[in-house]
Amino acid sequence: MSWWARANFIHTGSVVTRNPAGGPVRFDENLHHCEDWDFLLRLHHLAGHRFARLNSITSVYHQVPRPGAVHSAYQAAPTPFTMARAVIYDRWPAAHGRALEYREWFRRFDHHLDTRIEARLPVPPYVYEHAVRALHATFTDRRSPDPSLLGRLLPTTSSTHIADLPMPTPWEGVVHATR
Prior knowledge:
This is Glycosyltransferase. By secondary structure, the chain is mainly alpha-helical. It has one domain. The chain has six helices and two strands, in the order αβαααααβ. A two-stranded antiparallel sheet has the order 1-2. α3 packs antiparallel against α4. It is globular. The two termini are 13 Å apart.
């Protein structure tokens, strides 16, 4: 559950749970983004649901490389994801230590992303997916977030022209395999 409380990386089709309709947990209808992540955290914290990672791939979610919900959300700052993550982090505070480091990293990510959007600079394709994959590796190795990752994913433009900045290589399509 610990990585899950830091980043929204599980697509809804990968979770199998008993029907929560008879319990106290409901979707927060005020959240228009990340409501599934919040709902799963509610199931865990309020209803005692436990989740386990399986050692085999049980579902695959494929994102096609064309504008969709994420692209639309990245048109104005702060993004709906920035606002939703702030609500979720406030609602479900991290205890301490590394958890706080990773949450702070994602807050800085949101700030850098929102700054790029406000400046009408391009947002690298699948930038959030790149971040989650890279950070998951350091998190599971019990290390702090890579301090250079944010600059590689969302470079600032204070001293360099955007055309001169390295951008992550876009994927032809992103596939999330959930265990």
